[in-house]
Write a structure and sequence with these properties.
Strand order of the largest sheet: 3-2-4-1-5-8
Structural class: alpha+beta
Radius of gyration: 23 Å
Order of helices and strands: EHEEHEHEEEEHHHHEHEHEEHHHEEEEHE
């Protein structure tokens, strides 16, 4: 049966006739064995019925360039490797797309299919998605596609996933009235605002990103989200409820950071996968609960039932960005990944000495290099956009 056969990818390159052979070879190198090439005419019709099968990426690259010179469009079919592309392959793919963009790459199209027979696609339910690169960098394009290329999302989710990402980006960071996504997020926010206990599980955050030193939200979007928080002296631009900002604010954010979009952790399903819940549970399309309630419950369950691999405690005087100060402890818990994603899970909390109540600030996936950097960092400070600055602090690192 076709459904039991390995999935394959078809990558369509348009308008890329200026690509060098070396550039195409780099692209094909990310697939362990690039399988077939099919050139098409400018109107999209196959140039001929025969697909060209190559023994190596370099030979296939030469074929690609030759057909690009003749038609300006090629289709390269590659097996989708078990477990997806490795981290190094993903980086190579990003680098290649970047070089292609300079070579006037006009669009990227991916097609999922169950099988190919004799070089021809035979799955009637193949899903094809095309992304115009206008307004998007090459790295942003691959960020959108990566969760389907290498997990955790299934190839069958390709069209839906891309449509959701592009729809959110089309909002340009604003809660556009009457838009379907705005309505979904509003329903979540209204449910969360009615649950005082849920809101109390989180403390405060700033929308000024500590890496870019720029706001990740538009002031209008910040104000729209902030209205659903309980009145607090610690609120007001750029400070608000960490849980609301780090879920709904990040979903709407279009700010590009060194780590991608803030929404990636939710939209690509990686955070949900690390927490052992459905990949849509931390999106506006959650079948049950809200983004914040689902995230909070999953974190509560994790903290109650699992011990972190690493625990960093940084204690001292916390100077609140809204004014005032108090003694407290910042805890960074890092949980080992129990899946094929490779990332580990970081959970950041704060507990003030006067109450002892531990509240969440943020949670997100972190790669091995980031974890190592964090563990060896000797600077004692507040992190991850918490609405306070740690001074005169001490640091303890525990690893089990």
């Amino acid at each position: 049966m076709l459904s039991n056969l390995p999935a394959r990818w078809v990558l369509v390159l348009d308008g890329a006739s200026t690509l060098a052979t070396s550039t195409v070879a780099e692209l094909l190198a990310v697939a362990t064995s690039a399988a077939h090439l099919c050139a098409v005419s400018p109107n999209g019709d196959p140039k001929d019925e025969a697909w060209v099968e190559a023994e190596s990426g370099s030979r296939l690259a030469a074929d690609v360039v030759r057909h690009l010179d003749a038609t300006g469009r090629v289709i390269v079919e590659m097996p989708r490797q078990s477990g997806g592309l490795s981290g190094n392959d993903q980086r190579a793919f990003v680098a290649t797309l970047a070089s292609q963009q300079k070579a006037q790459l006009l669009s990227v199209q991916l097609t999922t299919t169950a099988a190919a027979v004799g070089g021809h696609l035979v799955d009637d339910v193949a899903t094809s998605v095309s992304i115009a690169t206008d307004g998007l960098t090459a790295e942003q394009v691959i960020t959108i596609l990566n969760p389907v290329l290498s997990g955790p999302r299934h190839p069958d989710e390709l069209a839906q996933h891309v449509a959701r990402r592009l729809s959110i980006l089309a909002l340009r960071g604003l809660p556009v009235p009457d838009h379907s996504i705005t309505k979904l997020i509003t329903n979540h926010l209204e449910g969360d605002s009615a649950d005082a206990g849920l809101l109390d599980r989180w403390w405060r955050s700033t929308v000024i990103d500590e890496n870019t030193l720029q706001p990740v939200l538009e002031p209008e979007t910040f104000a729209w989200i902030d209205q659903f928080d309980a009145p607090s002296a610690d609120s007001g631009w750029p400070l608000s409820h960490a849980g609301l900002l780090h879920t709904y604010g990040y979903i709407l954010s279009t700010a590009w950071t060194p780590f991608g979009w803030k929404s990636d952790r939710y939209m690509d399903g990686s955070l949900a996968t690390l927490l052992g819940i459905d990949t849509d549970d931390l999106t506006p399309w959650a079948a049950e609960g809200t983004m914040l309630s689902n995230l909070t419950q999953a974190l509560d369950d994790l903290m109650a039932n699992s011990s972190p691999r690493h625990l960093i405690e940084e204690s001292g005087r916390l100077v609140k960005l809204a004014g005032g100060s108090a003694d407290g402890t910042l805890r960074t818990r890092i949980y080992e990944a129990l899946n094929a994603l490779g990332d580990q899970l970081l959970v950041y909390t704060v507990a003030f000495a006067d109450t002892g109540v531990e509240r969440y600030i943020t949670a997100f996936p972190m790669g091995a290099s980031g974890v190592q950097s964090l563990l060896t960092d000797t600077e004692v400070r507040s992190r991850f956009n918490i609405a306070a600055t740690l001074v005169n602090g001490s640091r303890i690192v525990q690893t089990r």
